[in-house]
Specification:
The chain has 451 residues and is an all-alpha fold. The chain has a domain at 231-450: Growth Hormone, Chain: A (Up-down Bundle). The chain has 22 helices and two strands. It has helices spanning 18-23, 31-52, 54-65, 69-82, 84-87, 98-102, 126-132, 135-150, 156-165, 168-177, 185-190, 194-204, 208-223, 229-238, 240-258, 261-274, 280-308, 310-334, 342-360, 363-374, 380-432, 441-448, and strands spanning 114-115, 118-119. Helix 16 packs antiparallel against helix 17 and helix 18 (310-334) runs antiparallel to helix 19. It is found in: Membrane. Residues 97-112 have a biased composition (Basic residues). Keywords: Coiled coil, Membrane, Transmembrane, Transmembrane helix, Transport. Its main location: membrane.
Length: 451
């Protein structure tokens, strides 16, 4: 039900003059949202660490506990399934504990600020901040690989336990830091606490004009009932443009995970062992190399996304993924079972690094960015929730079937399959995704017919 302001509530602000916003001088960047973003992004570090630490820990768990391959698949994939409970929330917000509302500050921020049809302050908009902090989850992955290597010299019954225990350290800092974060302005506005919402926006915006514009956007969504679940699903049922956008979001997330990235992230040592690498220390060292390549490539994506555009990066990414997976599959097919063949091992490592880099400069981060840009603001919560669900489900499916898959069709066959999926994603990007760089929310609604 649309929010009806009471007589004693703060009235809606008058709409700021568009010309004034467009010609206003650039303000000094507000560092407080940066602090909040870094703090919130620590959850991504934990996610990356907790998911990827099993890559090396499984070696020592098998030695210590004698777990089977089927149990390894379950252990590696189950975190993606039960994370759905916390990662997907399609319900209209209810009165929530203070810490829960705080967590919503950054993800719920409006994606763009438009004036005269162009993106205002594109060099520092919230979408760019979100892209910047996609590197945190990859930092968590890299740290897990470092942990695997650092504690691999301990006895087997201790090594994997210490690898998991190390993940407690950032959790302590996150628990303390979250107490300093403000309430979500959108949550406050939905509860009728407009003055408090305005105070938070004043604190987290670069200028007062920006804070007023963001409050207007929030009030427009709240007053129209756009956050209600029933209204969102009615639009999906009745508007072809909305269905198209939702289909694009779900398909992007499907391809991001079904192309096999988690098979490399979580089973890298197994893949390289099949390519002839026999030393556990070397396997775990190469895993660190993969982590560095994955995290470093996000920086390239950050630098290029607003210069060359989303579509060229996605095409280069999916094409590079297909080619590198095809090479890796061919190496495994031609030299399966080769032991201590340095040339085969080096070529396989190069193919894996190429795949990781290709994924991380395009499809990895831009699937999230593109989805956020094309979803209408009033449907962003529901659309993002469904996209997250697709991503986690497909990650769980790939992770929990990889060993069974390569045992059934060989390791080479598994990577040929992933190469075919990556090739299909290239076709999807080429045929279905228009360029979104530099477009305002209004442009997006015209482009996808979601008004």
């Amino acid at each position: 039900m649309a929010h009806q302001p009471r007589d004693d509530e703060t009235p809606l602000l008058a709409k700021p003059d568009a010309a004034a916003l467009a010609t206003a001088p650039a303000a000094r960047r507000n560092k407080y949202p940066f602090f909040c973003a870094v703090l919130a992004s620590m959850t991504s570090v934990l996610t990356g660490y907790n998911v990827a630490v099993m890559s090396g820990a499984q070696i020592f768990m098998a030695e210590d506990l004698g777990i089977s391959d089927a149990q390894v698949e379950v252990l590696l994939g189950v975190i993606n399934i039960y994370s759905l409970a916390g990662g997907v929330d399609l319900r209209p917000p209810q009165p929530a504990p203070h810490h829960r509302a705080r967590q919503r500050l950054l993800p719920r921020r409006p994606a763009r600020h438009g004036a005269g049809g162009r993106v205002r302050r594109a060099h520092g908009g919230p979408l760019r901040r979100r892209r910047r902090f996609r590197i945190f989850i990859n930092t968590g992955v890299m740290l897990s690989y470092v942990s695997n290597l650092a504690f691999s010299g301990l006895p087997a019954h201790l090594s994997w336990r210490v690898m998991f225990a190390a993940g407690v350290v950032p959790t302590v800092f996150l628990a303390a830091g979250v107490l300093t974060m403000p309430e979500s302005p959108r949550w406050l506005a939905m509860k009728g606490r407009v003055a408090e919402a305005k105070a938070v926006l004043d604190r987290t915006s670069d200028t007062l004009a920006e804070a007023e514009q963001r409050l207007l956007e929030i009030e427009a969504v709240v007053s129209s009932g756009g956050r209600s679940g029933g209204g969102a699903w009615k639009e999906v049922a009745t508007k072809a443009g909305v269905r198209r956008v939702l289909a694009i979001v779900l398909t992007l997330q499907f391809f991001q995970q079904s192309s096999g990235i988690d098979s490399v992230v979580l089973y890298g040592p197994r893949v390289l062992a099949m390519a002839g690498v026999t030393s556990n220390t070397l396997l775990l060292s190469l895993n660190v190399l993969f982590g560095v390549a994955k995290a470093g490539s996000i920086l390239i994506a950050m630098a290029l996304a607003d210069r060359v555009g989303r579509r060229p990066l996605l095409l280069a990414s999916t094409g590079g993924m297909a080619a590198s997976l095809l090479v890796l599959g061919s190496l495994l097919a031609a030299f399966a079972g080769a032991r201590d063949d340095a040339a085969v091992a080096a070529a396989s490592v190069a193919a894996v690094v190429a795949f990781v880099v290709a994924f991380s400069v395009g499809l990895g981060p831009l699937a999230w960015v593109y989805s956020s840009e094309i979803l209408p603001l009033r449907l962003r919560g529901q659309g993002a929730g469904l996209g997250t669900a697709m991503n986690r489900v497909m990650s769980g499916v790939v992770t929990m079937t990889f060993i069974s898959l390569y045992q059934a069709i060989t390791m080479a066959g598994a990577f040929y399959l992933y190469a075919a999926v990556a090739a299909a994603s290239f076709v999807f990007v080429y045929a279905c995704l228009p360029e979104t760089r530099g477009r305002s929310l209004e442009d997006m609604e015209e482009l996808f017919h979601t008004k």
